[in-house]
Amino acid sequence: MTTDGKPAAEAAIKLMKLRYAGVCACGAAVAAGSHAGWDKATRRVLCETCVATLRADSDGAAEQPVDIGRPGASLDREYQRRKQSRENRVRARFPRLGGVYLTLTGQPATTRALATGAEGERQVASRLEKACGDEVLFLHNRRLGKRRHDGDIDHLAIAASGIYVIDAKHYKDATVRVRRTGGLLSPLKEQLLINGRDRTNLIAGSTKQLDALLVALDNHPLAASVSATSLLCFRNADLPFWGDAEIAGVRVQALRGTIKLLRRNGPLTASDRRSLHRHLAIELPPA
Q1: Does 154 share its domain with 235?
Q2: What b/e readout covers 105-141, taking b as 16+ CB neighbours within 10 angstroms?
Q3: Domain membership of residue 42 as a residue range
Q4: How far is CA 271 from the centre of its chain?
Q5: 146 and 14: one domain?
Q6: What tens digit of pLDDT does each residue of 228-267 get?
Q7: Beta strand 197-198 pairing with 228-235
Q8: Nearest C-alpha neighbor of 59 from the set 99, 111, 6
Q9: Torsion (CA) 130, 134, 136, 137 in degrees, nearest 10
Q10: Full-model pTM
Q11: Does any domain span residue 106?
Q12: Rounded CA gap, 159 and 262, in Å?
């Protein structure tokens, strides 16, 4: 065991994209440009299969537990920051009656929305974990990279069918539709409508999160073969039962549809999912 908690054999393996073709220790040819392992001890290339096998063999060894994150943590922190800031301002202005003023006026709607959003993320996480059981591994409230502080990912799900970037949305009893206009003689225009209002701007956030996931996956042996999907998960909203629930490559799902999607069969084995889960927990730390 090395000082960083990895088995010695696994720690000696560097994951990389090969500049030149090579031959794995098992005899398999490894093409230039493909993801593979480099055994620093023997100075030999390892194909994806051998790297995955090495990781599977080390699963039984003692490992540091994965920090799966706390759903809604970022929203909770911002809610508490705004709440405390407002309280400080009010008490400074009204030293004697500040407490009464705060009680009578309550929190601004924008501040309450943060608390509602945090609770929504916790409920979505709970429903997903309970419905999917051990077949799907989750990470919650993740940064977009080790040195990034320009956003976060609500939930990451590593399922048999691939990896899903889930952006949880709470619009109670809202009607959510994807509208397409134009086509034959004019440019196709796609819009995400929530209660009839254009909220297509939400798609940009999901696309940004998916891009961050792809960067985090780049140095994993399964990067070239794993499917990655971005989706907006609407809790307690009205979505159509049929039709193309997708816009600009981002799926638009109700919570029940998200669960159904995550439980689909796929090529990723339990060992694959554990390896991806541990890798992404490091590359995309808790926010």
Answers
A1: yes
A2: eebeeebeebbebbebbbbbbebbbeebeeebbbbbb
A3: 8-58
A4: 19
A5: no
A6: 999 999 988 888 766 558 899 999 999 999 999 999 999 9
A7: unpaired
A8: 6
A9: 100
A10: 0.75
A11: no
A12: 6
